[in-house]
Amino acid sequence: MSEPQVPTLYAWLGGLPTLLRLTERFYERVKEDALLAPVFAHMNGEHPAHVAAFLAEVLGGPATYSAEHGGHPHMVRQHLNRHLSQAQRRAWVALLLDTADELGMPDDPEFRSALVGYLEWGSRLAVLNSQPGVTVDDNATMPKWGWGEVKGPWQG
């Protein structure tokens, strides 16, 4: 008997429709957050869909973000010289997880552990990439996140 196929995190959470609901609601809530609103004041109306496409690709969905928006190097460029703080990072992660709860996204321990792992890892990279002197590796590949990822500081 063969092993059952393990779904991607993308499939488990409900795919792009769920991620779009998440990012749209999240960015509505960002506007009401005193710490986060200034960070996203420049955001245009397409931003939630772009973030949903990025998350979809990272979590095992289609490579739409890379095909249409330039992949990981483009995402890194969005953070350059924004001088993000740890307080803003923590608020971003907390609000995103609160929004996931509000929308009834999967809350089983395995999924939430994987999601929190990615959000912690990715948001900490965003803070690092937002500091002065960072350069972009135009050959950087899109991160891929699954059910039990462990990344060292030497890996992308």
From TrEMBL:
<keyword id="KW-0408">Iron</keyword>
<keyword id="KW-0349">Heme</keyword>
<protein>
    <submittedName>
        <fullName>Hemoglobin</fullName>
    </submittedName>
</protein>
<dbReference type="InterPro" id="IPR009050">
    <property type="entry name" value="Globin-like_sf"/>
</dbReference>
<keyword id="KW-0813">Transport</keyword>
<dbReference type="Pfam" id="PF01152">
    <property type="entry name" value="Bac_globin"/>
</dbReference>
<dbReference type="InterPro" id="IPR001486">
    <property type="entry name" value="Hemoglobin_trunc"/>
</dbReference>
<dbReference type="InterPro" id="IPR012292">
    <property type="entry name" value="Globin/Proto"/>
</dbReference>
<keyword id="KW-0479">Metal-binding</keyword>
